[in-house]
Amino acid sequence: MQLEFRELLPEDAAWAAPLMTASGRMGCEYSYTTAYMWSRFYDVRIARAGDALLLRSDNGATPSFLMPIGVPLEDGVELLRAYTAKQGVPLKLHGIDEETCERLRGLYPDQVRFDTNDGDYDYIYETEALATLPGKAYHSKKNHISAFSRKYDWQYETLNDSNLDEVVALSREWCREKGDCADAGLQSERCAIRRLLQYREQLSVLGGLIRVDGKAVAFTLGSPINESVFDVHVEKALSAYAGAYAVINREFAKTLTNYRYLNRENDMGIEGLRRAKESYRPAIVLKKYTCEWL
């Protein structure tokens, strides 16, 4: 079967998102919105072959593929093995959970090599816990919110047509605080935020912002992975407003309690980000692997 990979489009969400949702996977890679958001930075391309949905990234030295979606594991892998053989490169898969690793080892004994990077692991939380911050474990978070509330007259506001421009402006202001987005990843993220907002209805994007005296000082954006897991793509707050991150985190979680889990994605190996994510007591740290055929 001939595979033809092409650019991801917002309208692809209409057919691709249901397939990805039906996979039942919890990793952020299995959100079409995540794939679209980062498609330019990671050079992600999409193909459809019968019932199979395939995503390819050309960001590395050799192409890497998401686990095939919509078809049995072995059928999808063999489809990609035939494709990469024609390309003259070994098959490399990413976003693999531990259970699938074991299945691949059983299907292809002594033919595959696995690798992992703990900076890529997803932090997944009970939504109710982030919305209510129960018990002593969250005492410091509640203190941050209380201090913020004593200092500021603030309001939470759901993302809507009237405040999209303010979110874009806030992302620009946040970027200036971080060295004017000299980092390529931050530049790409800023562009990705604009794309999410531009196509937010097609991509099922939800979000919210915090206002202090009318000024937007924090915002967050996300979309569903499946019926029980919601992916938080972006969370930003201005550094001058200490405690704003804790407030936007809790307030957004309050709006999402119909999802059991919030996936707040990985820490990219950044120590400060890792401490922040661990401080919220993840219910699951989702280990993910790459698999390459020898």
Name some characteristics of this structure.
294 residues, Aminopeptidase, seven-stranded mixed beta sheet, 10 helices
List the helices and strands and how they pair.
Blueprint: E1 6-7, H1 13-22, H2 32-37, E2 44-49, E3 52-57, E4 64-66, H3 73-87, E5 92-96, H4 98-107, E6 112-116, E7 122-126, H5 127-132, H6 139-151, E8 154-158, H7 164-177, H8 184-198, E9 206-212, E10 215-224, E11 229-237, H9 244-254, E12 261-263, H10 271-279, E13 284-286, E14 289-293
Parallel strand pairs: 4-5, 11-12
Antiparallel strand pairs: 1-2, 2-3, 3-4, 5-14, 6-14, 7-12, 7-13, 8-9, 9-10, 10-11
Helix pairs in contact: 7-8
Short summary of the structure?
With 294 residues, this protein is of the alpha+beta class.
How would you sum up this structure, described in words?
This protein has ten helices and 14 strands. The protein folds into two domains: 6-120, 3-Layer(aba) Sandwich (Aminopeptidase), CATH 3.40.630; 123-285, Aminopeptidase, CATH 3.40.630. With 294 residues, it is an alpha+beta fold. It has helices at residues 13-22, 32-37, 73-87, 98-107, 127-132, 139-151, 164-177, 184-198, 244-254, 271-279, and strands at residues 6-7, 44-49, 52-57, 64-66, 92-96, 112-116, 122-126, 154-158, 206-212, 215-224, 229-237, 261-263, 284-286, 289-293. The strands form two sheets. Strands 1-2-3-4-5-14-6 form a seven-stranded mixed sheet. Strands 8-9-10-11-12-7-13 form a seven-stranded mixed sheet.
